[in-house]
Each structure stands twice: as structure tokens, then as C-alpha cells.
Design brief:
With about 150 residues, the chain is α/β, with parallel strands linked by helices. About 25% of the residues lie in helices and about 30% in strands. It is built from 3 helices and 5 strands. Strands 2-1-3-4-5 form a 5-stranded mixed β-sheet. The chain is elongated, with a radius of gyration of 17 Å. The chain starts with a strand and ends in a 10-residue tail after the last strand.
């Protein structure tokens, strides 16, 4: 049985991916299980979700010699020119919680009518192989930003 390394330190994301791939003919392992000891995060220097996912996948593949998958994702808000986009995880500061980020977005959209609050959640997933081959896929889920945390607009 072959391994696939998931290039993330996010335990929830790792567990979700492992669950999704549970019936596949390979073992899904974490970076820790693969022996990757990164004292600093891999620097995401790309300008797109696809580039950042591929940077992470290639680096961990290089370190482990195993097939590696990585993702990059975030929210793109049209009224904010696509922000926070690839900076979603760092939006509001490196240590900002999801609630703090959401509150800041709602403050930035104060007074903006619903029809101008269009947005999408975008995710790119990259796979890197030890032989140098790789591929990236990207998808989005379109919607609107509501007016309050925890309340849906119907």
C-alpha cells in the first residue's frame, strides 16, 4: 500500500481529507507521520491559490519522497476587489481568530446592499509526485456575505 502525505498542520483539515479518502487504495498520512519536521511554515509566495497549493505539495513531496497533496483556499469578496483571497488565513493578522476575521469583514461591508455582497469560497488542491509530475484542480462555491455572524439571509 502506498502513502499519500497531506501537507497541512491543520488537524481538522487533515482528518477531513483522511475521511474523504478512506476507501482509496493507499494510506493517508500526516506530515508528522511522514517525518516532516518543519520548524517554520512553508512560505506561500504564489499569487494564486493554485500556485500556493503547488508550492506546499512540491516541498513536502521533496522532503518525504511520497505522493503529497496540499490545498490553499479562501474567500473572495467582489465588493473588496477579491480580498482577502489568498491572504484569507492571514487576514486581520496572523493570530486573528475566525470570529475576528468575520467581524472585520462585516465591518468592511457595513452599509453595502445585499446584491453587492457577492463572494465565493475558492479551494485549489495540488498533488505532487516523486517523479516530478504534478497537477492542480480548483473549485469555487458562490454566495453572498450576510449581515451578521451566525445568521443566514434568505
Amino acid at each position: 500500500m502506498s502513502n499519500i502525505v497531506v501537507a497541512t498542520r491543520n488537524k481538522d483539515k487533515y482528518n477531513e481529507i483522511k475521511e474523504i479518502l478512506k476507501d482509496m487504495p493507499f494510506e493517508v498520512i500526516s506530515m508528522d507521520e511522514a517525518g516532516v519536521d518543519l520548524t517554520a511554515d512553508i512560505e506561500e509566495t504564489g499569487k494564486t491559490f493554485e500556485e500556493n497549493a503547488l508550492i506546499k505539495a512540491k516541498k513536502v513531496c521533496e522532503l518525504t519522497g511520497e505522493i503529497t497533496i496540499a490545498d490553499d483556499s479562501g474567500i473572495e469578496i467582489d465588493y473588496l476587489g477579491g480580498a482577502p483571497g489568498i491572504y484569507s488565513s492571514r487576514f486581520g493578522g496572523k493570530d486573528a481568530t475566525d470570529s475576528e476575521k468575520n467581524k472585520q469583514i462585516l465591518e468592511m461591508l457595513e452599509g453595502v446592499p445585499f446584491e453587492k455582497r457577492s463572494a465565493r469560497f475558492t479551494c485549489a488542491i495540488a498533488a505532487a509526485y516523486p517523479d516530478g509530475n504534478h497537477f492542480v484542480v480548483k473549485g469555487s462555491c458562490n454566495g453572498y456575505i450576510g449581515y451578521a455572524i451566525g445568521r443566514a439571509h434568505v
